[in-house]
Design a protein that fits this description.
The complex is a heterodimer of chains A (about 300) and B (about 300). With about 300 residues, chain A is mostly helical. Chain A has 15 helices and no strands. Chain B is an all-alpha fold. Chain B has one domain: MetI-like (MetI-like fold). Chain B has 14 helices and 2 strands, in the order H-E-E-H-H-H-H-H-H-H-H-H-H-H-H-H. In chain B, helix 3 packs parallel to helix 7, helix 3 runs parallel beside helix 8 and helix 13 packs antiparallel against helix 14. Classes of the chains: A mainly alpha (about 300), B mainly alpha (about 300). Chains A and B meet through helix 1, helix 2, helix 5, helix 6 and helix 7 of A and helix 1, helix 3, helix 4, helix 5 and helix 6 of B.
Chain lengths: ~300, ~300
């Protein structure tokens, strides 16, 4: 028995999820290193360009890495007016409001739906969950046109709500939350019912605290979808001051940003950095929660 | 009448609370997913120029699409298939292999490397087009041109994003770059969750190679995650269709080299206002997604459900 345990331990350090370094891992590092470097390159490029002073942007031949970093690009960007006289900070403000509102709303709406699909008993439960699972393969971009017609009919054009409402129908979020809620034992809920807890109390006091990792994942997915969304502003918003920062970035092109194309590169990179950084920071904080949610992401087919 | 009222009340008592929790999501789901899909199908049988009421024309849109739309048959469909096959299954296998290799590493390096691989997917490559335009800029100030000139690999600058033969490969690289998303994380979690005893048992039974391990233990043990990853890969691939227009800055793309089905929809819908025809192309796109998802379903269905 003793020998067997020793054997298992020694195998574990070289197999899946090892506890420490083992020479057998070297090939994996060697294969992963160039791939990871390639993935990292554009991101380093954004950082580097965003902090380049004007003379380095003009330098020929162009240098990849910044030598004397400066915050000038970001400062210029934030004091800039768009072609239609809307300050760039206004786009940024819109993005922040829209993203925060979407995150709060989608956490409540999706978790409530997931609670019903996971823990309540009703006749259509299996069917409705199956419908949501089919909707995982929904490609929003395919129905841009009917969506446009519907949004025009409902009078949502040019309203702030159009930034928020369509994104709240997020099948993958409900799916992940429901799968995670399935791991909450029914006994916990039955015990609470015996103590006289109402549905709302069970949802609020028991379920939500127990599925925090899935809520964190949901928050990240909503953040990414809303913060990066340029299409809504492009399609449904005609009033310039109601558009978002992602839209502003998507209208920039290397040649039109700012008065000078080369100086524009620096500001465009600064804008790209502003788009990217919040995503990265949030994910770093929540990554372990996301991974534990993904353990329950399986699709039975 | 009274009995009906009573049974309704009984139903309300029994299932009312479930539907109350479900209602807000269900309403949004119906308005923004179900109705648009139904509307796309209905509109696809009509002629609709957004001004007059849609006129029923039967299958004519589909017939035109299949028999008369030269651009669709000559460029859009082959481009879409090329793009989808490389980015879809290619990206998916890459995601699995990367996840599998990461799973062989200890926690800290694994987390850092996974973060780096995942971070491109946090950006939207369409929104980020301006960054790519700088990297692939066509003059000698463009980074790629400048390096290749320096290395002596090319003699004169190349208009990367405007030349038909380079646009598609660049679209594929850019999309693959940002495709290690939720599906990749799900597969990584799936691999890490496999009970290590399965590997022990196989080793005792004489399984020696890592490839055997992958095909006989890893993949069969995580079929649900494989399927989830596949669905995410398919959706991501078709959703990424706007990239060619974003990179080249024009719809249609230069000589239709990067024209994908999504761009064709926008071309007809928002540039020519032929909404009925655009809807027919949308339906074809949805059917393609459905077909590939069913295929993935076949491959990774869990045994007990067969």
């Amino acid at each position: 028995m003793r020998r067997r345990r020793f054997r298992l331990y020694s195998l574990r350090s070289s197999g899946i999820n090892p506890s420490g370094f083992h020479p057998s891992q070297i090939p994996f590092y060697l294969i992963l290193a160039p791939l990871v470097a390639f993935m990292l390159l554009p991101i380093i490029f954004i950082f580097s360009t965003a902090f380049k002073p004007l003379e380095e942007l003009f330098a020929y031949p162009p240098r990849f890495f910044v030598v004397n970093p400066t915050l000038k690009n970001s400062r210029d960007l934030l004091s800039l007016m768009s072609i239609s006289d809307v300050p760039v900070t206004r786009y940024l403000f819109n993005s922040i409001v829209v993203t925060l509102a979407s995150m709060v709303a989608s956490l409540f709406i999706s978790s409530a739906a997931a609670y019903a699909l996971s823990k309540k008993r009703f006749r259509l439960k299996q069917t409705l969950f199956a419908v949501n699972t089919v909707a995982l393969m929904f490609v929003p971009i395919a129905v841009t046109i009917p969506r446009f017609l519907i949004i025009a009919k409902t009078g949502l054009i040019d309203s702030f709500l159009v930034h928020i409402l369509p994104g709240l129908a997020m099948p993958v979020g409900v799916f992940l939350l429901k799968q995670f809620m399935d791991t909450v034992p029914n006994e916990v809920i039955e015990a609470a019912q015996i103590d006289g807890a109402s549905d709302l109390q069970i949802y609020w006091r028991i379920i939500l605290p127990m599925v925090r990792p899935a809520l964190a994942t949901m928050a990240i997915l909503t953040f990414q979808a809303t913060w990066n969304n340029a299409d809504t502003s492009a399609l449904y918003i005609n009033i310039e001051s109601l558009k978002t920062f992602a839209f502003y970035l998507s209208t920039l092109s290397a040649t039109t940003a700012g008065a000078n194309p080369v100086a524009g590169q620096g500001m465009a990179a600064a804008a790209a950095l502003i788009m990217f950084l919040p995503n990265l920071i949030i994910f770093i904080f929540l990554q372990s929660q996301v991974m534990s949610t993904m353990s329950h992401s399986g699709l039975k087919g | 009448m009274k009995a009906m009222g009573n049974s309704f009340r009984a139903w309300l008592h029994r299932e009312g609370s479930a539907y109350t929790f479900l209602a807000p999501y269900a309403i949004l789901f119906i308005v923004f997913i179900v109705v648009p899909v139904i509307a796309a199908v209905l509109l696809s049988f009509t002629y609709f120029d957004t001004i007059q009421f849609p006129q029923f024309i039967g299958l004519r849109n589909y017939i035109t699409l299949l028999t008369q739309d030269d651009i669709f048959m000559k460029y859009v469909l082959p481009n879409t298939i090329e793009f989808a096959v490389i980015v879809g299954p290619g990206g998916y296998m890459l995601a699995f292999l990367l996840a599998w290799m990461l799973a062989q590493l200890p926690r800290l390096p694994r987390t850092i490397l996974a973060l780096i691989l995942y971070s491109p997917s946090m950006t939207s490559s369409v929104t980020m087009a301006v960054v790519w335009q700088t990297l692939f800029s066509g003059d000698q100030n463009g980074y790629l041109n400048s390096y290749l000139l320096n290395l002596g690999l090319i003699q004169e600058t190349i208009q990367w994003l405007q030349s038909p033969q380079y646009l598609m490969p660049i679209m594929i690289v850019v999309t693959l770059w940002s495709s290690m998303g939720v599906g990749f994380l799900a597969m990584l979690a799936g691999i890490l969750d496999i009970n290590p005893e399965l590997y022990e048992a196989a080793a005792i039974d004489g399984m020696s190679s890592r490839w055997q391990e992958i095909f006989y233990i890893t993949i069969p043990s995580m079929k649900p995650q494989m399927l989830f990853g596949a669905v995410m890969a398919i959706v991501g691939t078709f959703q990424a269709g706007a990239i060619g227009v974003a990179l080249s800055g024009a719809n249609p793309t230069p000589q239709y080299a990067g024209q994908l089905i999504v761009n064709h929809i926008e071309d007809y819908g928002f540039l020519r206002y032929e909404m009925g025809y655009a809807a027919a192309i949308s339906v074809v796109l949805l059917l393609m997604v459905l077909f590939f998802t069913r295929l993935a379903n076949r491959l990774f269905r869990s045994e007990e459900e067969r």
